[in-house]
Structures are given as structure tokens and as C-alpha cells.
Design brief:
The chain is an alpha/beta fold and 239 residues long. It has one domain: TIM Barrel. It is built from eight helices and eight strands, in the order βββαβαβαβααβαβαα. An eight-stranded mixed beta sheet has the order 3-1-2-4-5-6-7-8. α1 packs across α2. The radius of gyration is 17 Å and the shape is globular.
Amino acid sequence: MLRGNIHSFESFGTVDGPGIRFVAFMQGCPMRCLFCHNPDTWNPDARGQYSMSPEELLAEVKRYKSFIRSGGVTVSGGEPLLQAPFVAEFFRLCREAGIHTALDTSGVIFNEEAMRVYAQSDLVLLDIKTIRDADHQSYTGCPSRSNRATMDYLREQGKPVWIRHVLVPGHTYDDAQLHELGAYLKNYPNVEKVELLAYHTMGRYKWANLDLAYPLEGVSALTADQLAHARSILADYGF
């Protein structure tokens, strides 16, 4: 039986897509982002809090259907495309039930199984970890080619996309990179929104709990003024 290894739930999510949403965070991720605030989701062999079939997860969602009526469900992670068959079937059931589906992914996996998930997704929340390909491997542990291929594929499919980009002082935050990001995204008319996310250190304790050295030790959180400045640059490109 098809089952999902689920790290955790959020019943009333307000930051992972439009409206109020039920969010399922899947266990497992192939990336090792320097700024990750959920390293406890990395290990795909670790047992999440829940092991469920798509039907069981839908039944859980339906308990909150009156609250998420203006929103829907979002599957995040970790990296949900590591469990693509489960997510595709769960989304299919959600859409049959009239529930909006959103996939929150890094785009690190691009194959036929991923395409089946995209076909069942009403919206894709796609992370761009860094706009510079040369930095992608050192920042995330993975090359950028799958993310680029995913961007092109979703444009071909006309799939609505919201971009998410974490701004890390001294790494992904500077005017030149923000202009590069804006110029790149202008080529994708299916991008409806760009969410610039301020780097923070709230997940640092999780690295310590896993006996992992925190790679951004000494890097300060992004300030409100820095975030406003970044948004002003992207606004010049229509985002």
C-alpha cells in the first residue's frame, strides 16, 4: 500500500500558499542548505510522526475543511518530491474533493514522477536558493540544473508559480543578485508572485540537537530595512 512518511502537520497555515491551509511536511530532503531551519526533515529513513495512506491523509484534511475552504492543502518538506507517487495520489484525491492543492518544492528533483505531481498541483511554490549557478552546489549540496529545468517545464505547462527566495546577508543578499533574480524571472510569465524571505536563526537549535555544526555561525538575521530594500528592487521588475 502506498504510504507517506510525514514529519508533521500544520492545521491552520497562513504562509504556505493562498488562504488558510492544511500543511503536510514530508520527511526527507536531498539538499543540505546552509540556511535550512528544518534539518530534522533531512533523513528520508527517519521515522516521521505519521505514516499514512493518501486516503488517510485526506480524511485528516477533511476534519478542517470548513476552516481551509478559502485556502486548501500544501505539501512541503523536507522535499516532497522524494515521495512523489504518494503526493501525486494525495493531490488527485484532494482535487476530486474540490480542495486546492499547492506543492512547496526546491525543484531539486525533475523526472516523470515529479511531472505527475505537477499535473495534480493547482499552484507550485518553488524555491530559488540562489540565482547564481556557481554558488548553488556550495549553498545547497546540489547543482541548480533541476531547478532550472523545473522552471522551464512549469512555464511550458502554464502552471501558476510563486517563487520563494531566502535572503542571507553576505550570501544571497546584495543588489547585484537581486537584479539578476528579477531579470531571470521576467522570462517566466507564469510566475504570479515572488516571496522574499528574511534569513533568521530560529532553527539553529535544531542543528545543535542533531550535533551538527551550524554553517552560518555569526551571520546576522536580515533586518526589516534590508528586506524592504530588496522588495523595492524586485518591484522594478514587476514583482
